[in-house]
Amino acid sequence: PAVVRGVDLVREYDRGAGGILRGGSTPSVRALDGVSIAVHSGEFVGIAGPSGSGKSTLLHLLAGLDVPTAGAVELAGEDIESYGERGRARLRLEHVGIVFQRFHLLPALSARANVALPLVELGRSKAERRERASALLEEVGLGDRMTHKPGQLSGGEQQRVAIARALVTEPELVVADEPTGELDSETSARVLSTLDDIADERAVVLASHDPQALETCDRLVRLRDGTRRRERAETELR
Ligand code: ADP
Ligand code: ADP
């Protein structure tokens, strides 16, 4: 579902304090340098690497949230560069589910309404939204939490609501940025097992430095300073 070919991503800091401190020149950081990766349905891929190595940046490119400075990103067979901002938003809505470390649920809405939200954007009927959201909440083990608001749910439950929301459009690709970063290990295990199940029929890409999360993945892409490190055999990773 997603291919990244030889991408660079160079970010320019905005001309805030940094610009002034450096005498007005615009400092830039090469967040990614010639990275390639292809992810396929049925794969659970982990992106590993220390803080600042480019994990989030790569995930954002895979998800079409960002465009590369050089190189190409293909999402659902389409070169994202041939789309404008709005076209990419649509492509993302239809083909990618995104899970964040801090859940990003709307506090005023019930779990079911949060899950249904992407379908509102797609203009689906109320009946379909309700049915799909309910089915997904059942699937992630939250059938008894449909009308609870995020504030009434534990961290693990909120993350499973976020996962259900990521799945509601039936995306080929699900990306998760440090999905267990805020969770204890028992809760993490439950969230990881949910993601692992999802990877049976979709591509799941997880960025993390949590060893428990990385161990759950089928394959790892290791980053350091924005470049890919040589992959090691799976047994060496533990
Ligand atoms: P990771 O997810 O592995 O911690 P990131 O992809 O967030 O790494 O960051 C890669 C590089 O890009 C780092 O050097 C980081 O400082 C830089 N970076 C990340 N976000 C921004 C931003 N919004 N503006 C400028 N630089 C950024
Ligand atoms: P953190 O927990 O460190 O804030 P998150 O995983 O919650 O990180 O979010 C990662 C980044 O993605 C943040 O910079 C956040 O602003 C951005 N982000 C969150 N939600 C969205 C979204 N729906 N679309 C695009 N970017 C988002």
Automatic annotation (TrEMBL):
<keyword id="KW-0813">Transport</keyword>
<dbReference type="GO" id="GO:0022857">
    <property type="term" value="F:transmembrane transporter activity"/>
</dbReference>
<feature type="domain" description="ABC transporter">
    <location>
        <begin position="4"/>
        <end position="238"/>
    </location>
</feature>
<dbReference type="InterPro" id="IPR003593">
    <property type="entry name" value="AAA+_ATPase"/>
</dbReference>
<dbReference type="InterPro" id="IPR003439">
    <property type="entry name" value="ABC_transporter-like_ATP-bd"/>
</dbReference>
<dbReference type="GO" id="GO:0005524">
    <property type="term" value="F:ATP binding"/>
</dbReference>
<dbReference type="Pfam" id="PF00005">
    <property type="entry name" value="ABC_tran"/>
</dbReference>
<keyword id="KW-0067">ATP-binding</keyword>
<dbReference type="InterPro" id="IPR027417">
    <property type="entry name" value="P-loop_NTPase"/>
</dbReference>
<dbReference type="GO" id="GO:0098796">
    <property type="term" value="C:membrane protein complex"/>
</dbReference>
<protein>
    <submittedName>
        <fullName>ABC transporter ATP-binding protein</fullName>
    </submittedName>
</protein>
<dbReference type="InterPro" id="IPR015854">
    <property type="entry name" value="ABC_transpr_LolD-like"/>
</dbReference>
<keyword id="KW-0547">Nucleotide-binding</keyword>
<dbReference type="InterPro" id="IPR017911">
    <property type="entry name" value="MacB-like_ATP-bd"/>
</dbReference>
<dbReference type="InterPro" id="IPR017871">
    <property type="entry name" value="ABC_transporter-like_CS"/>
</dbReference>
